[in-house]
Fold D-alanine aminotransferase.
Amino acid sequence: MSVKYFNGEFVKDSISIDPNDRGYQFGDGIYEVIRVYDGKLFTGIEHFERLLRSAAEIQIKLEQTVDDYMAICERLVAENYIQNGNIYVQVTRGAAVRNHLFPESSEPVTFIYTYDSERPVQGMKEGVKVITTDDIRWLRCDIKSLNLLGNVLNKQKAKEAGGTEAIQLREGIVTEGTSSNAYIVKEGAIYTHPANNLILNGITRQVIKTCAAEMGIPFIEQSFDKDALFAADEIFISSTSIEVTPVNQVDDQPFAVGPVTQKLQQAFEQKISAL
Ligand SMILES: *Cc1c(COP(=O)(O)O)cnc(C)c1O
């Protein structure tokens, strides 16, 4: 059995969660998913900086620093012999008698575990099918909140339509996927929704922005509508687990895997190799 981190301790046995935990009752918490390549955390610091930001935005006070979290994860990765896998980190506001208001006293509950996971190479090579659908989420998508019902319903809708992801539209504007950021390439430039309250500013998105700058490819943080999506030269999505994944079909329209997407994939690969 693998080692997990739960509330300050490294445990091998199963753990128990209080049914009054606010994560369980309200989705009152935040999370991160971090990638491990060859036993090393990829952009771990950036993920924990974002975790601390998400916590601050919902007023959960955390004692641990980025370095503390990094040390916990490095120990889990080593003890569980993770070579290629993921780390899941979640923090809830803790347990208290059910009441919407923040409890006067509750300790945050932290749970971190690791698991093996191969890179989704087939989708990265051939592309994936996506659907378009209304963005039915709340207005603080910049927080990586445990509240994922809108995301869950839309991803399920994509699956039922034979796709793997849903590109979401708010008032006709493309925001992002349910667990990924969305981009189009038009005349050699990359376009993606600005990092505001309507999207989660992906760490992978930030790596892509750096790669684009290094290669001299314009990276334009400007929103675009559904017509622009369908008129794109290339479309791709990104996240920690799918890296840079081309889109080969949106609803009924096919798209080719294009050269800008492939260049970004190569640049991303180099960032992994440089770990
Ligand atoms: C986590 C997430 C992403 C991707 O973020 P990464 O840091 O690149 O993994 C994009 N959109 C949503 C809604 C997410 O939850």
